[in-house]
Amino acid sequence: MRLLSGRARTFETAVSVLILLIMVGTTICIYIISRDYNMARFGIASGSGQESGGDFPPVGKVETYNNDNLYEKIDGKAPMYQEAGFVKLTAQQFAAKSNSELGFELYVYDMNNAKNAFSVYSRQRRADATDLNGLGASGFGYVAGNEICISLGKNYIEMIGSAESNELVDGMKGIAKDLSAKFKPTDNDKIVELRYFPNEGTVTGSWKLQIDNAFGFDGLTNAYSALYKSGDKAITIFFSKRKDADEAKTVAKNYYDFLITNGGKALTVDGEVLKSAGASVVDFFGNFEIVFPAGIFVGGVHEANDKQAAEKAAEVLIGRLKEIND
User: Fold this and answer.
1) How far is it, in rounded angstroms, from Cα 253 to Cα 263?
2) Could you tell me if 46 and 182 lie in one domain?
3) Which tens digit of pLDDT belongs to each residue from 277-296?
4) Is the dihedral of CA 187, 188, 191, 196 positive or negative?
5) Which of 47, 150, 193, 204 has the smallest number of Cβ neighbours within 10 A?
6) Distance CA 45, CA 182 (A)
7) What is the pLDDT of residue 29?
8) Which CATH number do you get for residue 107?
9) Which residue, among 301, 42, 290, 84, has the nearest Cα to 178 in the 3D structure?
10) What is the 3-state secondary structure (H, E, C) of 48-79?
11) Are residues 44 and 184 in the same domain?
């Protein structure tokens, strides 16, 4: 057996100690990262919200979820996020210094791109929502009860409070300010399709984006919809941009066939504008559906309860999409 010299043994011992120190250091770093309370990676400072009258430092450790375990955090809703392009969820709890029972949980969903984030945001917007300002031209946000929800670049963000409280809402607004300063959406994050809706009559904030399976029809994808005011009636109008005019005609026909197959009744098309556009009008169990091709777009009206108002809204949308095509 070969015996080590004193110098060799000393060197071997030094190397072993160095390896041990590296392992201990790595373990400490991992522990510190796993207990990163200050959410610095999101630009959230401890005590965010002080300038708006609250003091809500983070508590507990940051939680992260991916496609494999998202259901553990939001059981029942996970498929909606995953179908819209979900990548990762980061969650953190915050509590008021003045009252540990008053707090909220922050959810930051990485949705891969701005359209995916906006799709989830728009589909979950509550009817009692009030717009949240100060998020920049590319950001969307609202306050509803004890919640603040935001679409900011590729991120969909929720803050859900433990109670309805002005102090709590102010604290969440402080966090929203931190997040908007950190993420800074660019012009590339703007949802330009929202400009395609009629300039007058479209209800601001009512926009929705359904990436797949719009209105229950899997052939209608990337469909934008919004409420349009026709007199005292609110009508849902929609459009979907296709790769060319032929595909737009095909999708329009397939959607019409889908409605008829599922119990809809074809109605006479009255207006000349609708006739010239090749529009179809369907009575779908007491509501009225209209669908038409318009250049590279498929457009129409969904679930209107007044035929005349539906036709008027469709005519306005046809005119607007014609402007975009031209």
Assistant:
1) 16
2) yes
3) 999 999 999 999 999 999 99
4) positive
5) 204
6) 11
7) 47
8) 3.40.1000
9) 42
10) CCHHHCCCCCEEEEEEEECCCCHHHHCCCCHH
11) yes
The one-letter code for the residue type at 210 is Q
Burial environment of residue 214 by CB neighbours within 10 A (0 to 12, 13 to 18, 19 or more): buried
Indicate whether 202 and 294 sit together in one domain.
yes
Residues 158 and 198 placed together within one structural domain of the fold: no
Q: How far is CA 141 from CA 125, 133, 148, 325, in A?
A: 9, 7, 7, 30
How far apart (Å, rounded) are the C-alpha atoms in residues 195 and 183?
Answer: 23
User: Kind of pairing, strands 147-152 and 155-161?
Assistant: antiparallel
Low-confidence ranges of the chain (pLDDT < 70): 1-54
Enter the tokens of residue 93.
């709890």
* Confidence (pLDDT) at 281: 98
Domain span including residue 127? 40-188
DSSP state of 286: T
Instruction: Give the pLDDT confidence of 219-246 residue by residue, as tens digits.
Output: 999 999 999 998 889 999 999 999 999 9
* Nearest residue to 273 (alpha-carbon basis) of 232, 230, 317: 317
Query: What is the model's pLDDT at position 22?
Result: 57
Q: Which of 188, 220, 195, 204 is nearest to 117 (CA)?
A: 188
Same domain, 289 and 155: no
Pair of tokens at residue 311: 């036709």
Q: Which two tokens stand for residue 149?
A: 């929800």
Q: Of 138, 167, 188, which residue sits at a domain end?
A: 188
Distance separating alpha carbons of residues 249 and 256, to the nearest angstrom: 11
Nearest CA to 156 out of 144, 166, 167, 142 is that of: 142
Tokens matching residue 196: 């395609």
Cα 5 to Cα 2, 14, 50, 280, 287: the distances in Å are 10, 14, 65, 94, 93
